[in-house]
Amino acid sequence: MTIEINNLHKQFGKNQVLKGVDLTIEKGNIYAVLGPNGSGKTTLIKSILGMVIPDKGKISVLNESIKKNWKYRKKIDYLPQIANFPPNIKVKELIGMIKDLRNSSSEEEELIDLFGLEPFLNKKLSTLSGGTKQKVNIVLTFMFDSPLIILDEPTTGLDPKALISLKELIQKEKTNGKTVLITSHIMQFVEEVADEIVYLLEGEIYFKGSIEKLLEQTEQANFEHAIAAITTGSHA
Ligand SMILES: Nc1ncnc2c1ncn2[C@@H]1O[C@H](COP(=O)(O)OP(=O)(O)OP(=O)(O)O)[C@@H](O)[C@H]1O
């Protein structure tokens, strides 16, 4: 088991975001964490990363409780939704900096090649387009060799070629036995990469299972409609 979450609660002020989340993430699968805007996907992911401290509940990552334990973070490669890197440094300097910070072995050359980033290595981050910045973020995430990969909205700004490369990269990591957790609002992308759907609604896991099971349960013929059906159904 890669991640085990029991009875997780988190509120911000009066806003109760997570109200008793129970979730098991098994090794070697690709999971999509879905849910409407504001349903708590990022809060859940940040709780797993130790960036949000839960009010109640227990989280174990790779069979270790994460409470008062920071070493487990080294076993996770994380792509944040919005990466705030210093604007004045060059792409290659940023890559070097992250390598020094992580102090782990990395393989970035192949990834730089895959996303066509060579011409940008000597450019400052502030001069890059949104999609190019996201490609740099992807390189920074995938260049290490951690057993757990967490991607928050990884497709943002990517062109079709980069999107295909990202999908191939995710599948390759799965073949290598990695566990991948993804949030995305792009249903076509989710349908193509995810083995399991985890659907958060009103602070709880409303659905967990394969896309086939979701289609059956919602009596819908298509995935995007099935997801929309859950969302509208609950608020009707
Ligand atoms: N640090 C914080 N302080 C106060 N409220 C917060 C904080 N972080 C998140 N929230 C609130 O918690 C709720 C859940 O936010 P979260 O970002 O987890 O949702 P999400 O499902 O990832 O949304 P989206 O699909 O829009 O990215 C929102 O109402 C948000 O305003």
TrEMBL record:
Pfam families to which the protein is assigned, alphabetical: ABC_tran
Annotated Gene Ontology MF terms? Answer: ATP binding
Listed CDD domains:
ABC_DR_subfamily_A
Q: What InterPro entries would the database entry show?
A: AAA+_ATPase, ABC_transporter-like_ATP-bd, ABC_Transporter_VariousFunc, P-loop_NTPase
Report if keyword Zinc is assigned.
no
Swiss-Prot/TrEMBL keywords: ATP-binding, Nucleotide-binding, Transport
User: What is the protein name given in its UniProt record?
Assistant: ABC transporter ATP-binding protein
List the source organism: Flagellimonas aurea
- Give the lineage: Bacteria, Pseudomonadati, Bacteroidota, Flavobacteriia, Flavobacteriales
